[in-house]
Structure formats: structure tokens, C-alpha cells
Amino acid sequence: MASISGSTLWRWLHEDAIRPWFHRSWIFPRDPDFASKAGRVLDLYAREWQGRALKDDEFVISADEKTSIQARRRKHATQACRPRTPMHVEHEYFRCGAWTYIAGLDVHHARIFGRCESKNGIVPFDRLVEQVMTRPPYNDARRVFWIVDNCSVHRGAKAVERLRAQYPRLVLVHVPTHASWLNQIEIYFSVVQRKVPYSQRFDRSQRPRRASPRFPILLGSHCSALRVVVHP
Prior knowledge:
By secondary structure, this protein is of the alpha/beta class. It has a single domain, classed as Ribonuclease H-like superfamily/Ribonuclease H (Nucleotidyltransferase, domain 5, 2-Layer Sandwich). It has helices at 6-14, 34-45, 122-133, 156-166, 185-195, 208-211, 214-221; strands at residues 48-49, 52-53, 58-74, 93-106, 111-117, 143-148, 170-174, 227-231. A 6-stranded mixed sheet has the order 7-6-3-4-5-8, with helices on both faces. A two-stranded antiparallel ribbon has the order 1-2. Strand 1 and strand 2 form a beta hairpin. The longest helix is centred in the first third of the chain and has 12 residues, at 34-45. The chain is extended and about 75 Å long.
């Protein structure tokens, strides 16, 4: 029997018309108003609302929660990178707790507002809203649009009424069901997930609550386009 190399075999398999070992995750849209809801969000990104351009004193905040952020302390010190040598990060670690990072992105002015909480919920999210809405220029804005998903913290008409009662100029805008990918804060969260927490090291004496706010600060030091405002 003739022998073939492994690379040849994989090339043949890759060229097959049907490759059952490949798959792509998919979810069917369940929101009957998907197009109209998505259109409102995309219009806000283009600085439009109900067919009219936004004024200079109107702002768009994209907000969400990133839960279960693991604070890890490596068992051995990280070795700094050197010429032609990457940084070495110890694989094993001690667990220092898990925290929720709640953040809002000013879409058109590249400002990040964030806070770390021990758990997710209405009260922690409302603290982020207060953090943004009580500082200039948002406290004097004509309107501030908040783009959020449909998790229980800010879902439906009750959330709209709750936040509007506290801040009459706040307009809560929901993305369609199962469409969190339309929320631009997810782009920021993906950068945090890939570039900051993994290599971060905590001293034995540090508590996760004190260390967690360093995540966006470290990101901000490498991304001059973002202005980072962090509340521990």
C-alpha cells in the first residue's frame, strides 16, 4: 500500500466539497421587530434619530456588563519580553475571586466609563448610569441615548420607566433579542478579554476589587483613541 504524508492527507480533506467536521454557530432571529430595532441602533451610530440628525449636545452611550472576570495570581513571576523573545506568563495560577465589570462607551467621543462590582444587578448598573449622567457634559445634555441588550437588568418597559424617572433626558434603546453583537461596547470588551486580564498579575496582598479597575487603565495606556474614566 502506498504511503502519503500527513500534509497531503489534510490537503485532500480540506478540498472536499462536504466537510462535516467544520461548523459555524448560528441562531435564528426570534425578534419579530429585528429590522426596525436594529435600524434604530445603526441610525444612532450614524448620529440620527427618527430621521433627524443629533445635535451637538446629544450623546450615545453603549453599555453592558462583563461578568465573571477572573482575578488570577500567577504562581511564578511573569518574565518581561526582550528582543526576539516574547513575554512568558506562568500557566498555573491562584484564584483571587471573580468580579463584574460594568462599562459604558461614548460612541462618538471615544470615552470609556467603567466600574467593578462584586455582582451584577439593577443597583450596580444604576450606579454606572449615575456615574455618567451626573458629570459634564451628560448632566446638561439635551438627550443621552443608552444602547443596551435585553438582559434582566435593563430589559423592557420597566427599565425604561425606572431610568427615565431618575434622568428625564435619558433614552433607553434596546438592541433586538439575541443581537448583543450590535452593541459597540462588545468591541471594547473583546479587547479587554484578549489583551488585558490574561497577563495581568496580582500580588498576594491585592484584593480583586482593588486590582480589577486596572484592566481598563492598562488598556487605555495602549490605546490613545480612548479616554478611560474608571470608578473602583
